[in-house]
Fold this protein.
Amino acid sequence: MDNQNPAPPASPVDMPPAAETLLALMHAQAEVARLSEREQLFSSLLVSVNAVLWAFDWATQQMIYVSPAYERIFGRSAGLLLADYGEWRDSIYPDDLNYAERSLNEVIEKGSIEDREYRIIRADGEIRWLSDKCFVSHQADAGHRLIVVGIAEDITEKKQLESELQRLATTDVLTQSSNRRHFFDCAQREFEQARLSGTPLAFLLLDIDDFKLVNDTYGHQEGDLVLQRIAECGRGTLRRGDLFGRIGGEEFAAVFPGCAPDMAKQIAERLQREIQRLSFQRDGVTFGITASQGLTNLGDADQSLEALYGRADAAMYQAKRQGKNQIVLV
């Protein structure tokens, strides 16, 4: 047997044309498969991301891309948005539209905008909060078109939590009126504004008469109901823009911005009448309550809110000494 070396495999250069074509086709198919896998992966990622990715052509004022999350979050058709940018404007909550448009314009000047927040109205009428980050992208391969790109996240649950925390921090849990700290913070701002603008302002203190007797006779649960009904009287009697809060156990306070002395007196008297009309029942016994009020108005010599509070407090205790169930003005 002859000892012969096997022939080496043919190199691509030595391949016949048909084999080269087949190899090139196989490489092309493999590359197409890889690209298809990447595209499918990218599409899957876009579908799973719970945020709206978008791109906007500034020159033509057309939305040129929006990710699948748009339809989930906005509850609107992506096709309609891509066909007409007016769909975006129509989805913005009316009170937030000016801000949303103004902040989008600022992207051109600043290059980027972080965390602009605004509300949208879904097609089903539900209102949602969005946080939108956007920046300018110049696309060289498209004739240097000015493209604004961004990502919008639904932050409704975060906003609801913030609102609830704010409510808990500023509201008296039992009566749902302002708590002491929040009331005096707001009252201080109104005092400063009244001093600055020279407008009238009135301060009122109200204390429930013989409240300890109510608790001792009918129980603390009935006492809590009395406090809640007083707060309801305050909310129903005061004007829009007036402040009302529970600042102590059975003590409430009110501030009437822009309210002349005569009008402040009328409001206090109306509140007094509403409290006198309240009726409670416990174990077959019906009882009512009264309150003593101290009312004062901002004067030229008043340099602090504490001055008003002190006068109203003294007037309220004077009403107590004079027989309760009355208003003392100072």
